[in-house]
Automatic annotation (TrEMBL):
It comes from the Bacteria. Pfam families: Metallophos. InterPro entries: Ap4A_hydrolase, Calcineurin-like_PHP, Metallo-depent_PP-like. This is Metallophosphoesterase.
Length: 265
């Protein structure tokens, strides 16, 4: 039996959250602030980087996918560079260990596998033993096969996520767009720029650009972690959850044309 779908009214508020980085509790606190269940005029855009750096990468993806399922047409999830790198590792050659070597203590991989599954992928049956008995390429292949075997639908969902979401007023994106292209930005911006553009752009543009990727303490003169607005067309919301334990939540009031922000964690 499927859940009944309530009629969707006009959008009154658009919320944005970015750079969850494997931190489930702050994400759940942020979703409580958005309150999609209690606010039929709310829409949510998640700007990517759901994995790496925190212990709950898999659970974060599952939470976002389930939130999207429960609120069809009201939740947009975009791809970030860390999500793209995870997929690139899964698709890559077994001898390419770069992403895996960057996964400190296999924290991201561990979030996808049970202790026994991890142990077997590492070449032993004891979940309490972390040292691999296998050479790097074989271990790499085993880990990728284990993730794909257990989470193929979830990873397929991740792979299908778009990289940009445009509204009448905003361009939501993980990192940024080719602003030098002006009105041709959508055709001119390569995929890797959408997820990896650096440094942050500032100043006026055709629409408001709402992005994550660049930690806001790098933009605020006082080094604070709140939402950063450049006074023109750019909003950056990556509050470095791995440092602060909190996520920034940006809200756009469609009728008023105004922004407000809060933090959750």
């Amino acid at each position: 039996m499927t859940d009944p779908v309530a009629p969707i009214g006009p959008t009154a508020r658009i919320y944005a959250i970015s750079d969850v980085h494997g931190h489930l509790a702050p994400l759940q606190a942020a979703l409580d602030l958005v309150d999609l269940d209690g606010d039929p005029g709310a829409e949510l855009v998640l700007l990517g980087d759901y994995v790496d750096r925190g212990p709950d990468s898999c659970a974060v993806l599952e939470e976002i996918r389930e939130t999207q399922r429960r609120h069809p047409g009201r939740v947009t999830a975009l791809l970030g560079n860390h999500d793209d790198w995870l997929l690139g590792w899964l698709d890559g050659e077994d001898h390419d260990l770069d992403w895996l070597m960057g996964d400190a203590d296999l924290m991201t991989v561990r979030s996808f596998l049970s202790p026994l599954e991890l142990a077997r992928a590492l070449g032993h049956e004891d979940p309490g033993s972390d040292a691999s008995r296998l050479d790097g390429p074989t271990m790499n292949r085993n880990l990728k096969r284990a993730l794909l075997s257990r989470h193929r639908p979830l990873l397929a969902w991740l792979r299908a996520l778009p990289r940009v979401h445009e509204t009448e007023q905003q361009i939501f994106v993980h990192a940024g767009v080719d602003e030098e292209a002006g009105e041709l930005w959508r055709a001119a911006t390569p995929d890797h720029v959408l997820t990896e553009k650096f440094p942050a752009s500032t100043g006026p543009f055709l629409k408001d650009v709402v992005a994550g990727h660049v930690r806001t303490h790098q933009l605020h003169p006082d080094g604070s972690h709140g939402v950063f607005h450049d006074g023109a067309s750019h909003w950056y919301i990556d509050g470095a959850v791995e440092v602060t334990g909190r996520l920034n939540v940006l809200c756009y009031d469609v009728a008023e044309g105004t922004y407000s922000s809060s933090t959750a964690g």
